[in-house]
Design goal:
The structure is a homodimer.
Chain A: H1 2-12, H2 17-28, H3 34-41, H4 45-57, E1 61-65, E2 73-77, H5 79-99, H6 105-121
Antiparallel strand pairs in A: 1-2
Chain A binds a DNA duplex through residues 16, 18, 33-35, 43-50, 69-73, 134-135.
DNA sequence: TATTGTTATACTCTATAACTATA
DNA sequence: TATAGTTATAGAGTATAACAATA
């Protein structure tokens, strides 16, 4: 249920989990093309279109055409997007607290450490939810 | 990716994750009606139909009409179903080992303990994947 | 001709509601 | 009239392939 509860929380703000993940990617490294992001997430570029549309309609990110190569749409956060990321950080923190209720701080640290090691061991890309990755994932 | 990798493993055997979960429920307590199971899993009864159909076609479970009330279909494992459950246990074990590679036995125990406490704390029904639960869940 | 983004299409999964058969 | 199971229908989410614009 953890994932569902997080989804419920961000749904109150009108965003889906995949949109939220994309927003975080744009926040982490603004200015990337949709192709670059699709490659990074391991998802078909066509899937990004609807996600980007949604975030752009909510004025959280914007597409900027590259004048040098007008095929590229570089993605950037808007000011509202920056503010939204701050909200998101709060929600993430609250969610983590709620999930770890019943564990004392030392145990939380243990859990985080163990899970992080598993993530590394399994080759998961940091900050990228595995749900984006459909098939093979070729690094740049 | 853990969930996806497990899905891939059982897909080799021709089963989907929801089917696998249902099979386990039937194995745990044979003879329940589809309504009872739907209630237990927190899923609409209509969803069970296709899952049961699939398992029945693969001869892993069987529907038996209750002569006293012919509306009920009690679900039972077939012999093949029992054998399949044994295979499933092996796969589950292998999957867990693969996921925990990199952790020594003591750390695995720690992780299991911490996660179990979270599951209890969050009120998750033991042996039932949260993915079945759509909305409210009313106990019997 | 190749690449970026987009659109068109199809498929899977699921929930809701209508239906049937039994009671 | 009520209940167990089923079928019909519709919606969300996603992948694949075709397409338009640009290079």
């Amino acid at each position: 249920m953890p994932a569902q509860r997080f989804a419920d929380r961000i749904a109150e703000l009108g965003l889906s989990p995949p949109q939220t993940g994309l927003l975080r990617v744009v926040a982490m490294r603004p200015g990337q093309s949709q192709q670059a992001i699709a490659n990074q997430l391991g998802t078909p570029p066509s899937r990004l279109v609807a996600l980007v549309d949604g975030l752009e309609q909510r004025d959280l990110i914007e597409r900027r055409r590259n004048p040098d190569d007008r095929r590229h749409h570089a993605l950037y956060l808007t000011e509202a997007g920056v503010r939204f990321m701050a909200q998101l950080a709060v929600i993430g923190k609250e969610h983590e607290d709620a999930m770890c209720a019943g564990l004392d701080p030392a145990e939380r640290g243990q859990l985080l450490g163990l899970l992080s090691r598993i993530a590394v061991e399994q080759g998961l890309t940091p900050m990228v939810h595995p749900g984006y990755r459909a098939m093979a994932e070729q690094p740049d």
